[in-house]
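hey so i finally got around to running the thing on that chain from the lab meeting. sorry it took forever, my laptop kept dying and i had to restart like 3 times. anyway pasting the input first so we r on the same page abt which one it is
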Amino acid sequence: MSTLDKTDRQIVHLLEEDATRSSQSIAKMLSISPATVRRRIEKLTKNGVIRITAIVDPSKAGFYLVAVISLNVDPAVMNKVLTALHTKKDIRWLAASAGRYNVIMLCRFNSTEDFHLFIQDEVAKLEGISSFETFICLRLEKGRYL
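ok and heres what got predicted. didnt touch it at all, straight out
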């Protein structure tokens, strides 16, 4: 499945707002049958387009500090660095990127001390990182995936 049609997008949007919505509820909102909703969700899931999962509100779960960390990594060791970072529990989102930095990650921490230790003990010790910049998120305004 390479693209989503209008109905698929509407279903995904409704599930993003509340993944516990029933097929019956979604069907009523979109004026389609519950069976159609179930088939589409099953197909979207089977094809890896969506995963039904819980989204955590960081501050309510004890992660009081959310940070975006951008790295400049030597391309010769990029895969090694990405593999190492992939194993870190504090990293919630990780991407190779183009632009000023070639790795960007979103991290969650319980405290500024945990953030400091992560930078000092995890990031700064990785071979091939020439520089990095951190951005502390003060408030989450919007979080969407589509």
